[in-house]
Amino acid sequence: xxxxxxxxxxxxxxxxxxxxxxxxxxxxxxxxxxxxxxxxxxxxxxxxxxxxxxxxxxxxxxxxxxxxxxxxxxxxxxxxxxxxxxxxxxxxxxxxxxxxxxxxxxxxxxxxxxxxxxxxxxxxxxxxxxxxxxxxxxxxxxxxxxxxxxxxxxxxxxxxxxxxxxxxxxxxxxxxxxxxxxxxxxxxxxxxxxxxxxxxxxxxxxxxxxxxxxxxxxxxxxxxxxxxxxxxxxxxxxxxxxxxxxxxxxxxxxxxxxxxxxxxxxxxxxxxxxxxxxxxxxxxxxxxxxxxxxxxxxxxxxxxxxxxxxxxxxxxxxxxxxxxxxxxxxxxxxxxxxxxxxxxxxxxxxxxxxxxxxxxxxxxxxxxxxxxxxxxxxxxxxxxxxxxxxxxxxxxxxxxxxxxxxxxxxxxxxxx
Length: 416
Hints:
By secondary structure, the protein is an alpha+beta fold.
């Protein structure tokens, strides 16, 4: 237990300790913080307390305005920092607890802080790794006999996204405009998307990168995975339908991707690891690893329109439904010799489970608009309206505590 009070329903007990970037009105400098209860521990204020073998010469990473340089130090440094933090925050440890002057400088109420993107994201890759999601979308557009493309069970399908439009939770989302062909016998028109959608995803940040031409073997991949965030990869389905042949999504995805501000370290998630799904056919050797890397993370999506009094849960899913895991994604991404760098963001793709309530997009929840989603009190949706606020949450349930991710939220604004 920590000397900082933590409610049982808080996402941020001492078992979690996620990293983020914050500022305050009286000190606008961006700095690294760790969430504990309803407080933020400013690591720049206590950097002198990190005196172990991996951090004593690298204390300045906690003066940086992003997590990039800290993530680049590698898994031994991450483990050392986590051990120091758990010791300093323990109820029995006096170093911070009894030093009123240091505590006053080091702790900031979350209510007084503004949260920012955790890292300078150089590159962003989006995968397509939920079998249930890929099957649902395939059935809608190609029928049951051809639901999965021939390559899907052999490799983690993905595409390169747009890093410049990744935004932190709470950022308003402008409805995009683009070319839309509403009828196969008519030419396209330029207009605002009518089929604006969500995608329930999670993503991980790369720690140390790799040299160009030197793939990351799957047995070493976990050493390059720093931690995870929630993600909403907003999608304009009508723009996507017209543009995606033959190269895939472009303008239908590049206008905004929202992530949660707190990066939960992988060590905090390891108690919730599950056996990997059985993969048939067995993947090629570079994608095979015996260690488990699937996680029991409860996920939910709430929607509240501006005409609604309270939010309504429209999806309950779980990260355990992923078919391809993060180590496989990273190994596949670099097998050509592609170099990833510290702060790169790799996303799961839409996370859907086997039951309708676990479908991670409105495309699936409304089954391509044919089944309106009941929000109660006469309110329905097939896709998003202006003024709709979407909030995604995720957590792992421990005994008497939860390891959570905070919120990933955004509100739809009218088209420009």
